[in-house]
Specification:
By secondary structure, the protein is an alpha+beta fold. It contains ten helices and ten strands. A hairpin with a 5-residue loop joins strand 3 and strand 4. The longest helix has 59 residues.
């Protein structure tokens, strides 16, 4: 009879724990990073002798064999890889869109200024002495210079913004590395199969997910579940052996970013938001260099063309622009009479020559080509982002199909274990009643 009581008591303990586990699942159905938990039960057996068989095995109730998490290591790795790719593409696209905006005519007015400059030059060929047209010509030149300065300023601010974002991202990455090491310490102390261990494992996976979305990392685990995290490209340890090796960011003179691991080893990452920031910084640096080259080329062409003419006072034409970069490009302070519309061939000869500059290699065409190139690069980045996001969503869905909480399933298990709990309680009651009947018969 004591065995019957033991069987009932073990059932109460086991099914009570199972109900608590189901309650945790239901309560965390919407919690990010929570993996479904299952209480592992096994039949307990007790050995004993009978008159006919020695060491006979008799039923001994039910034992709790720990808590297991519903996870698939391959799907987790696939989801992390695709998440890193999606974050890289998304981060890169966000800055590419800003670059496109900074170079657009709505922002800087360079394209409309160039058109106005050449249109006014054409008008001056018909009326070279018109002071209003001469003033408009100088104003168009000033508008173009101002547009270059505006674009240069926005790209410079963008480079600073990327550097600031990289510093913040590196700080968050390092904070996650430290948090992961704290989880490792907890896992080494946790009781295997306990709720505490399952909670720590959930948090470990969440942190590694976040780190994978930030940069290229790979994880391995010991028999207690503690993680060793390495840089994917170099294999250098970031977390492991009780140590944390943080990363740092360096910004070059032109705004290009590079990351390194404590000790000087480079942290080259082609994935994650850090990888996207590196690519964005490279693109902005390239566009700033291209803008400077275009500003210098534009100023050189227009200065040479204007200086080849004669102004209204019979003097040689002065330079229209000063400055060697887009940020320093400035229209010279000329009066309307200093516009060199004439040349040796006539009063409008220089404006005719300036108008003839329009063609396949003129400033307008070059600027349009730069804008078209940026638009194409942005469109390509947008397509890559869409593909990477679709890939990441599919990988996340496959992972969630294993780990997520199905409330219908939990409801069925809840009913099953409630009935099992009631049966265990009834077993104890029957044992008590039987024992009392025997005692009363004595």
């Amino acid at each position: 009879m004591s065995d019957l009581l033991g069987i009932g008591a073990s059932g109460l303990r086991a099914y009570s724990a199972a109900l608590a586990t189901i309650g945790d699942n239901i309560a965390n159905a919407q919690s990010p990073g929570y993996a479904r938990r299952t209480l592992q039960l096994r039949g307990a057996q007790s050995a004993g002798d009978t008159p006919f068989v020695r060491a006979n095995i008799n039923p001994g109730g039910v034992d709790i064999n720990g808590i297991s998490r519903s996870v698939d290591a391959w799907l987790i790795d696939d989801a992390r890889i695709s998440s890193g790719g999606a974050e890289r593409a998304s981060t890169r696209l966000a800055w590419m869109d800003r670059v496109e905006g900074a170079l657009s005519d709505e922002t800087n007015g360079i394209a409309s200024g160039l058109t106005s400059l050449f249109t006014t030059a054409d008008q001056l060929t018909a009326d070279p002495a018109n002071r209003t047209l001469r003033s408009q010509f100088l104003q168009a030149a000033d508008d173009v210079a101002s547009g270059f300065r505006t674009a240069a300023g926005q790209l410079s601010d963008m480079a600073d913004g990327i550097a600031g974002a990289a510093t913040g991202a590196a700080d968050q990455f390092n904070a996650d590395l430290k948090a992961l090491e704290s989880i490792n310490v907890g896992l080494r102390k946790a009781r295997p199969g306990s709720t505490g261990e399952a909670t720590l494992l959930d948090e470990r996976d969440r942190l590694i997910d976040q780190l994978s979305a930030q940069g290229g990392v790979s994880a391995s685990f010991d028999d207690r579940g503690a993680a060793t995290l390495r840089a994917t490209a170099s294999g250098d340890v970031l977390v492991g052996g009780g140590e944390v090796h943080p990363i740092s960011v360096t910004t070059g003179a032109d705004g290009r970013l590079s990351f390194s691991i404590e000790g000087g080893a480079p942290f080259d990452t082609a994935t994650g938001s850090l990888g996207g920031l590196v690519e964005a910084s490279n693109h902005v640096a390239d566009q700033r260099a291209a803008l400077d080259a275009m500003a210098a080329d534009f100023a050189g062409q227009l200065n040479a063309a204007h200086q080849a003419g004669i102004d209204a006072n019979g003097n040689p034409g002065a330079a229209l622009f000063t400055g060697a970069t887009a940020a320093t490009l400035t229209a010279a302070a000329l009066s309307p009479d200093q516009v060199a519309a004439a040349d040796a061939s006539g009063s409008n000869g220089n404006m005719l020559a300036l108008g003839a500059m329009r063609g396949a290699n003129d400033p307008e065409a070059k600027w349009s080509g730069m804008i078209a190139s940026q638009a194409q690069a942005t469109a390509s980045a947008r397509a890559q982002d869409a593909a990477a996001t679709t890939r990441a969503d599919a990988a996340s869905a496959a992972r969630s199909a294993v780990s997520e909480i199905d409330l219908d399933r939990e409801a069925g298990d809840l009913l099953r274990f409630q009935q099992a709990y009631s049966a265990a309680a009834r077993t104890i009651q029957v044992a008590r009643e039987t024992m009392q009947t025997l005692l009363n018969a004595v």
